[in-house]
Amino acid sequence: MKLLALDTSTEACSVALRLNDEVLALDEVCPQQHSKRVLPMVQQLLSDAGLTLSQLDGLVFGKGPGSFTGVRIGVGVAQGLAFGADLPLYGISTLAAMAQAAQRLHQARQVLAAIDARMAEIYFGEYQLDDSGVMQLQGLEQAIRPELLQPRTHSAECTAVGTGWQTYGAVLQQWQPAQSTDILYPSARDMLTLAGPAWQAGSFVAAEQAEPSYVRDTVSWQKLPGR
């Protein structure tokens, strides 16, 4: 199985290549530079592996949530590459990818993932590790003000990931104490792990069927004073 994953949905730009059991990955924090960096990073990994795009089996992309512009860049680049090489696609949640990173790096079993969504909101999802070592979403991903999160029905030890915990840590820790980590952004490496079961199940789709997941589809802009 040869899969390439890319993500540009947050401040980080991430690309990873899976060759059977081996993974090559590049991660850069480069705000507003994703459109310039993502294709060179893809080419670097393919060159390091001695592969061309057409030799891959499929592409994986970060479908969001995250920056609207960043999500669109990632989906657009993935679709362009897929059309050119006639490859199938599969989208992975950025929140799920961070949860999977917590399992890989900290052996976490229950993860609360939160991305700063601006406008006093977070993109939020709760994940639980299944028996195969893959993080599974509990409930729904949502865009919500941190103080409006509903009380949890259980108090199992949780791991915190994402910039939402950095920005709204005091509120979130009061709502549910969680073990803090240094995982702020999703990595394409973990998207490959999550895409494995989808590949085995035949869930990859044609390029024209790839869709983003903004979670928050409508945005209310406040008029600036004097404008």
Automatic annotation (TrEMBL):
It comes from the Bacteria. SUPFAM superfamilies: Actin-like ATPase domain. Residues 28-134 form the Gcp-like domain. Its main location: cytoplasm. Gene3D superfamilies: 3.30.420.40. InterPro entries: ATPase_NBD, Gcp-like_dom, T6A_TsaB. It is found in: Cytoplasm. Keywords: Cytoplasm, tRNA processing. GO terms for cellular component: cytosol. GO terms for biological process: tRNA threonylcarbamoyladenosine modification. Belongs to the KAE1 / TsaD family. TsaB subfamily. PANTHER family: TRNA N6-ADENOSINE THREONYLCARBAMOYLTRANSFERASE (PTHR11735), TRNA THREONYLCARBAMOYLADENOSINE BIOSYNTHESIS PROTEIN TSAB (PTHR11735:SF11). NCBIfam families: T6A_YeaZ. This is tRNA threonylcarbamoyladenosine biosynthesis protein TsaB. The lineage of its organism: Bacteria, Pseudomonadati, Pseudomonadota, Gammaproteobacteria, Alkalimonas.
